[in-house]
Amino acid sequence: MAGPEDPKAQSRGGSWIERWDPEDETFWARTGARVARRNLAFSVLSEHIGFSVWSMWSVLVLFMGPEYGVDPAGKFFLVSVATLVGAFARVPYTFAVAVLGGRNWTVVAAALLLVPSVAAFAVMEPGTPYGTLMVCAALTGVGGGNFASSMTNINSFYPLRKKGWALGLNAGGGNIGVPVVQLAALAVIGAGGGPRVLLGVYIPLIVVAAVLSALFMDNLATVRNDTGAAAEAVGDGHTWIMAFLYVGTFGSFIGYSFAFGLVLQTQFGRTPLQAASITFVGPLLGSLIRPVGGRLADRFGGARITLWTFAAMALATGVVALASVATSLPLFTVAFILVFVLSGLGNGSTYKMIPGIFQARAERDGLTGEAAAAYGRRLSGASMGLIGAVGALGGLGINLAFRQSFQTAGTGTAAFVAFLVFYAVCFAVTWAVYLRRPAGRAGTAPTAGTTPRPGYAEV
Q1: Could you report the per-residue pLDDT of 137-162, keeping only the tens digit for each?
Q2: Which end of the chain, N or C, is surrounded by fewer C-beta atoms within 10 Å?
Q3: How many percent of the chain have pLDDT more than 90?
Q4: What is the DSSP letter of 410?
Q5: What is the Cα–Cα distance from 21 to 186, expressed in whole angstroms?
Q6: Is the distance from CB of 265 to CB of 235 less than 8 angstroms?
Q7: What domains can you pick out in the chain, each with its CATH number?
Q8: Which residues pair with 219 in a beta bridge?
Q9: String of b and e for 91-123 (b: at least 16 CB within 10 Å)?
């Protein structure tokens, strides 16, 4: 007989969990942690393959020699279309979790990855019209949507004290799909294979991910379609501030992931094999360090980690710009990879901030305990899709900036200078909103002998 702490004790079906209270430490220790870890593992698998499919065109363009008749600007536009559709897909994917359930939607989202993969398999050959290639690139946007639904789902499984690590691990495991598909492309190119070989590897993996999600994941009945939460998240200024900051971290990660190989080919004359042998390193390290960013945010506060991450990103981007001017490939490569690492660190810290901000706001409004935690989960879950969508649009901006820079000047230097300025603005916004000591606020005057603290420094 199921015990009182068994999350499926009140199940309405094999995959539905009626009772879920991760903030209850007894519940968490007895059964919650085990169930959450299982769902996290298969969420990571599906999201990982989703990222690989989303970034597929960043490597397919490396296979496109002169016989395809597509110039560098056209290739940048192909990866930009994939980024754009993936960004917008994140909004409906977020709310699909509440409508269908996390497990059910993960199965659907994984199965949808077959559409762009099979389409690309069918058309990837010289002579295919550019419009057809563009449609196939756009279809890969469904892989970008996977991130939003996966993060929203896993956010509901974990208590606030564990969210930085859990969300960082979930996102990092997904993000690592980018370097994995790049490594797979390197192996295929090195073996003299074509793009259909690469696609032929991923199609069965998609089926496996969908089947395993159906067998081993759960739906949380406590997560309901809450249009009120969505409307509240849209109207909250913190949603849009965090979306802006996420443009700087995740927008950089995904934009550079899609563009790195093309920049090496176009500006430094690397062959497809030479470019593919380097491009995976930055996304790999950026993905691996994302959970570390979440862990550091759990310990020191996400706002602090995010602030200094933007400072370091601006500095590293300045070095990239100088290396671009000097046409120093070794310096350019090392500095560019450092920007990837820093963006991954910032990805982890910014996503840790989201639930913390909303819970801190609830506490300021007088809520305490589980009521404040529930409010934080409700608003952070609703806002994550919006924040993720806007953040992904940063990747579109990066690819369009590179396209324009190469069209007008033949190098990416102007684009890098623009990115540096943007990181400086992100630094200023983080400090001003989350770390600057607040002016006197009713009911928050410090007592004698104490020092006023920034209101959101611990989030």
Answers
A1: 999 999 999 988 998 899 889 988 88
A2: N
A3: 49
A4: S
A5: 45
A6: no
A7: 16-435 (1.20.1250.20)
A8: 16
A9: bebbbbbbebbbbbbbbebbbbbbebbebbbee
